[in-house]
Amino acid sequence: MNSTNELDFLAHSAGALAQLQAGFDQWQRTHFTRRPPEFFALELNGEAGELANLEKKTWKGKTIPAEQFADEAADVLIALMNYANARGVDLESAVATKCAEIARRRNADPSHAP
């Protein structure tokens, strides 16, 4: 699969991530205290840590309800959106650029293919 075809999903979803990010920005500004990007970076790491702890528990054999994974994953996404907005990161552009770079590397070195 060449890099153009493997990234078609980005073209088909153009604007969706930007719209989601803008919605989160409006929601955050309307309902919550303004915080610096450093706050959201720490929050993001905390939420990702909580998700990782759930995975660690499953790895050790404990049964975790699916709703807990969904709840923590949602927290991670919200924290990421808040961080990106506070830092002025255009996630749609950043993701497209990163996916194109990953595809370029994979095509240049097939040993990196899944």
What is the compact description of this entry?
The chain has helices spanning 3-6, 8-12, 16-31, 37-59, 66-87, 91-108. By secondary structure, it is mainly alpha-helical.
Strand content: under 5%
Q: Give me the CATH fold name of the domain at 36-114.
A: Helix Hairpins
Q: Please state the average pLDDT score.
A: 91
Q: Cα-atom Rg, whole angstroms?
A: 17 Å
Low-confidence stretches: none
- CATH second-level architecture of the domain at 36-114: Orthogonal Bundle
Task: State the name of the first-level CATH class of the domain at 36-114.
Answer: Mainly Alpha
Percent range for helical residues? over 70%
The CATH fourth-level homologous superfamily of the domain at 36-114: MazG-like
Total E-strand runs:
0
Strand count, sense and barrel status of the largest sheet are:
none
Question: Count of helices?
Answer: 6
Distance between the termini: 12 Å
Order of helices and strands: HHHHHH
Cα shape: globular
The chain-level structural class is mainly alpha
